[in-house]
Structure prediction request, 408 residues.
Amino acid sequence: MPASDAEHHGFDPSRLARLDATMASFVDAGKIPGIQLLVSRHGELVHRHCYGFTDVEDQRSVEEDTLYRIYSMTKPVTSVALMMLLEEGELLLENPVSRFIPEFAEMRVYEGGNARNMRTRAAARTMTVRDVLTHMSGLTYGFFESHPVDALYRHAHLGEFIPPDHTLEEAMSRLAEIPLLHEPATRWNYSMSTDVVGRIVEVVSGKGLDEFFAERIFGPLGMTDTAFAAPESELARCSPLYMPDRSDSPSAMMKLFGPETMVQQPKFLSGGGGLVGTADDYLAFAHMLLGRGALGDTRLLGSRTVEAMTRNHLPGGATLAELGQSTFSEVSVAGHGFGLGFSVVTDAAAAQVLGSAGTFGWGGAASTNFWVDPVEEICCVFMTQLLPSDSYPLRPFLRNAVYQALVD
Prediction:
């Protein structure tokens, strides 16, 4: 994707250099292996910055076509897939999840105790499609390790970073046997909800999630490098995954997974975090959202559907800080609500970073991030490979550095 003139789109080139220096400083400090940053305005790429390495040990530089694990940046893709089926009259937000996955018909809720001796009660109401789109379902993740219910997830090999040896369909059966963390629609908790969304897509469409994505989203948008695994022929483009090595020094990294894991087709097609792809591919997806469902002549969603997805759907207009958990989030919770698959800035001042109310997006566990600002018509895609995403405050520095370069 060739870059347009940045000044023509309101960016000061000298201030874009400041953006580059800010993000490169994390690489130079040894905190992250390398970065790729894309910034667009008015639907045109205005800035790209590749810096550092995909493989630090081999000194392999970041390239424009580098492939990354995007983890939870899969969630917006899965949410778009479900909303496409909603537009086709296949389901409603108010439908119970059990209509599509019968195992969820009689869920129970945690009341007390530990993982070995747990008290539960019958859920007061059924979990709905809207609940799983908004993470108001009562589900959780095994990797949190902050609640007795999380331990049950780990025992069932659910919600962990190592790909499990079961299918998405089998995961739903396991998930339905575990009590909910809380009653549906009462709290926001980041969770395997979007994996449930992915299974609903499979059931309704009659296609595997990989097939639906390829035919209905990736193909039409030209996202030729995005899938649940990269081809073996593209191994050289794949990235290792790093994590901080606190035992050595505060800025040291250690390799967690090698690039070979990206070419292994997973048995579990995670709608919540399974995709790999390039920065350019994800920018095409972001441009579709900025275009209110359309990229050029290709339309995936109606404009009003995208508007509905990017409103705050939390009860009473609450924010994530008011209704959410304190253990984990891919974005800052201050000044943010949550829509149908995206975080949404509801109060730009409370968010304490530069930007506009109405900006929506999400991030991934390997410190990747994207956002779409409909007010300024800005899209940003940031790629690196460091787990977990809260190792360093990359995202607020990135957000401030992008907006300080805008001077029109």
Observations:
- Residues 92-205 form one domain.
